[in-house]
Amino acid sequence: MQGLIVKSGAQLRGQIQISGAKNAALALMPAALLTDQPLRLVNMPQLSDTLLMQELMAQFGVDIRVGAENGLNWVEMKAAEIKDTCAPYDIVRKMRASIFTLGPLVARIGQADVSLPGGCAIGTRPVDFYINGLTTLGAQIELENGYIRARAPQGLKGAKIVFPFASVGATESMMMAATLAQGESELVNAAREPEVIDLANCLIAMGAKIDGAGTDTIRIQGQAALHGATHRIIADRIEAGTYVMAAAITGGDLELLGGNLNDLAGALPILEKAGVVFTPTQNGYRASRPGQLIGIDAMTEPFPGFATDLQAQYMALMCVANGAAMITETIFENRFMHAPELMRLGANITIHGSSALVRGVPKLKGASVMATDLRASVSLVLAGLVAEGKTIINRIYHLDRGYENLEKKLAQCGALIERVDLADAA
């Protein structure tokens, strides 16, 4: 099994190119199911999750071409004929984003059988928002043998959908489904994340009529058909935020090429108070930490709040800050699984329900640790960058789901990090 060996001692300096956004790409790819014409997505990140989504799309009968141009990878998908409408358990259990195919399949073909999802074990992420939304649009849905079986033989009909919680996935899925529904649909309490806006822009390029993306109310006027388009995926704000933490924890200075400071949203003022200095550049922005790290409280919230996908990285940062920080998780109820692993490195963390009190320590010490989910994995990498000695990180397949060439990007900026076969390393 592969793992990472990380050694401390380097202040990261240099430039890192931010890849296309994983969370945007996984919603954009199923949009190809809405048309029989080609959809080309440029700036496609090369990740295990995006490769799995390609595998799932191919199973539906989608013709897939891949290539690269001007240093950017692209994927072109043409769903001229959908031959299968089943998303099987073997694929869905590895990637929750498979559920994004549910809405487009029902909207265009009138049926879909999608396995109940798997993915990171970070807490309950109910699918009832998807089910209730499609039911409101006129689909008939049954749960049978672990599958969501949706049918709409007469097509979907526009309706008002009110989300109990601003769910990104449900907002994106219902927005896609509504593009081919008859009449107007309104999504109330919609998610406002940049990935939602990116999907809306792609759908508009395909001929959809959408207003309000980026606000809490989105209106979609259903169309008889959509057409092909070319769309460039936005930069990954979570990857960028992760490298901001890497610069900060090592006292380094990194320029994040393609990064957008506005996408950091609620994390930006908190990181600035903690001692991170941001400088806009012609091609992105720089993040540095010239002084001391200071413990600052943070609470995760839907965009534009502090992103839950940056919580684990921020916890690693606070482990070596001066003072203490209370980190409160409001999105997922089981997203502190990285805390015990950080404690193996010498962190002082106390969990109180949905909050973690992190008291900064003078230094961390290397040890063997185990990644439990995607963002937890990279928090251990960050801690390893400043932990005295050698940190060995197991189960890094989680990292490959969301970070493109992580160790190479860090190494080119001075990090002492390598991917190894742990059997050989032992």
Quick recap:
The chain is α/β, with parallel strands linked by helices. It has 15 helices and 26 strands. α1 (22-28) runs parallel beside α7 and α10 (311-318) packs parallel to α12.
Describe this structure in words.
Helix content is 29%, strand content 27%. The protein is an alpha/beta fold and 426 residues long. The strands form 7 sheets. It has a 4-stranded mixed sheet. Helix 5 (128-136) packs parallel to helix 6 (168-178) and helix 10 runs parallel beside helix 12 (374-384). The longest helix has 14 residues, at 237-250.
* Whole-angstrom Rg: 22 Å
Q: Which spans have pLDDT < 50 for at least 5 consecutive residues? A: 119-125
Which strand order do you get reading across the main beta sheet? 23-25-1-26
Main beta sheet: 4 strands, mixed
Query: Structural class of the helices, strands and pairings?
Result: alpha/beta
Average pLDDT works out at 94
- Give the CA-CA distance, first to last residue: 11 Å
Name the helicity range.
Answer: 25-40%
Coarse shape: globular
List the total number of helices: 15
Range of strand content: 25-35%
Record field, number of beta strands: 26
